[in-house]
Design goal:
Strand order of the largest sheet: 3-4-5
Distance between the termini: 59 Å
Number of strands: 5
Number of helices: 17
Shape: extended
Radius of gyration: 30 Å
Order of helices and strands: EHHEHHHHHHHHHHHHHHEEHE
Strand content: 5-15%
């Protein structure tokens, strides 16, 4: 049963280790009309009795927090220089799923907790509805083989296993859908967003947009994309990025968003610095030179061409092209940037701004050398490309992957 507006009784091992006397318990005894002089003893007796009966409790907010996978927005880190050490997305998701699944099994095993949640949900508690939905969260079971079996199809062992899973999971999924819907209607914003995502429902997406309280911005991006709502997707993408989602910042940067590119540049991303320099060439030559100087301090001369020919296919695929092997090739890299020189005063300012920006980049050693960039010509090397049986030449621009780029 639920013994307060925000807490539920549970079996030992779920929630608090054991109940203890708290000011709230003493205050509750006073509210129930017990004499002031014996409320502390009553509270102690109650706590001792609960411990002897192996009864514990868990706050509803803690239960919901344990059942919610960590949001993508929460993955962000102000120290964007950590990008190159981010775990593979699949590994992160698997780790989250495993942790939540273990917690779910513990909660489902507590009859006291489940009874309390059902009573609270029956009383209109939207948080309890959301907790029950989370405890029954699962993918929609595939009905195909079950319907085929009803038509008389003979199933093999594997197919029968799928049918058994359908029979088991169908009521669970229906319970998940029902309680998730009730939680969303009851005002739980996370539930509205989840319902919109799982059931591709624009009405519940609108409900999540209008709702109050915290929300996973990256989840809102995904739902907006699935509903082909580009305007909402861009708005939530910016929110997710401002909350620290590295994936959102990366997505914005790929679209040429200057704010996102600057965030990457602040982490020492030379690819972003080059893009900012190229943008500035059209509007502010001094800023363009500033970015070139920052890149030089990070160890990259953007005035030098990195265009090279590489083997396309075969055992040497991806290696720098060698005439002795011949074959198809592709060209990859960046052309060296050519900028008009600045006058001495503008150049001094560009250098000063570059030093100021560089000194704010985390985890880089102070720059000791001289800034002596000189614009150079563009182009790919002209020698060494007379290979045999060249089938095609395809120019591929390097992928923007984030990181320090050096």
């Amino acid at each position: 049963m639920a013994f307060s507006a925000d807490a539920l009784l549970s079996n030992a091992g779920v929630g608090s280790v054991s109940p203890s006397v708290t000011p709230e318990m003493i205050g509750r005894a006073v509210q129930l009309g017990y004499p002031q002089g014996c409320t502390a003893e009553i509270a102690k007796s109650l706590a001792d009795h609960a411990t002897a009966r192996q009864v514990s409790f868990i706050r509803l907010r803690d239960l919901l927090a344990a059942l919610q996978p960590k949001s993508r927005s929460e993955d962000g880190d102000d120290d964007l220089d950590e990008w190159e050490t981010i775990p593979d997305d699949d590994q992160v998701e698997e780790g989250r799923a495993s942790s939540v699944e273990q917690q779910t099994e513990r909660f489902l095993a507590s009859s006291l907790l489940m009874d309390g949640l059902e009573q609270a949900a029956a009383g209109g508690n939207a948080g309890a509805h959301f907790a029950i939905a989370a405890l029954n969260r699962c993918k929609k079971p595939n009905v195909y083989l079950y319907e085929e079996s009803l038509k008389g199809r003979i199933l093999n062992t594997v197919e029968q296993g799928w049918v058994d899973a359908f029979v088991k999971n169908k009521p669970r999924f229906e319970k998940y859908e029902h309680h998730l819907r009730q939680a969303a209607i009851g005002g739980v914003r996370h539930a509205a967003a989840e319902f919109a995502e799982v059931f591709d429902d624009a009405k519940f997406y609108a409900l999540a947009e209008r709702g109050k309280g915290a929300i996973d911005a990256w989840q809102m991006v995904k739902v907006a994309d699935s509903l082909n709502d580009g305007e909402s997707s861009r708005r939530w993408l910016r929110i997710a990025a401002e909350e620290g989602s590295l994936e959102a910042i990366e997505s914005l940067a790929r679209s040429g968003d200057v704010w996102a590119l600057r965030k990457q540049a602040e982490a020492g991303d030379v690819h972003a610095i080059r893009e900012l320099a190229e943008m500035a060439m059209e509007t502010d030559l001094g800023e363009a030179w500033m970015w070139l100087y920052v890149a030089q301090m990070l160890g990259t001369d953007l005035t030098k061409s990195t265009m090279r020919a590489y083997h396309d296919g075969g055992q040497q695929h991806g290696q720098e092209y060698d005439d002795d092997f011949g074959g198809a090739l592709y060209v990859d890299g960046d052309e060296g940037m050519e900028l008009m020189p600045l006058d001495p005063g503008q150049d001094l300012k560009a250098r000063e701004l570059a030093h100021l920006f560089f000194n704010k980049i985390p985890n880089v050693a102070p720059y000791q050398g001289a800034l002596d960039l000189v614009p150079r010509g563009n182009g790919v090397p002209s020698e060494g490309f007379s290979g045999r049986a060249v089938a095609r030449v395809e120019v591929r621009k390097p992928k923007h992957t984030g990181g320090n780029g050096h």
